[in-house]
Amino acid sequence: MKILLVDDNVDRLKKMIDFLSKIDGINRDDIEDRRTSSEAREFLSKTQVDLLVLDILLPRRVEEEPSVANSLTLLTEISETTNLFKPRKVVGLTAYSEAAKAASRAFVEQTWTILESSETGDSWLLSLEKCIQYLSTPQGHQTKLCYGTDVLVITALRDPEMDAIRKLDWNWSPDEPLDDSTFFARGAIDIEDTSLSVVSAVADRMGMVSTAVLAAKLFAQFKPRLCVMPGICAGVRGKASIGDVVFADSCWDYQSGKFVRDESRVSGFEIDPHHINVARPVKARFEQLCADKSLMNGIWQSWPNRVSNPPKLLLGPVASGSSVLADSSVTEKIVQQQRKVKGIEMELYGLYLAAEQCPIPRPLAFGLKAVCDFADENKSDENQEYAAYVSARTTDAFLKRFGRDLIDVVDSM
Question: CATH homologous superfamily of domain 3-136?
Answer without folding.
Answer: Response regulator (3.40.50.2300)
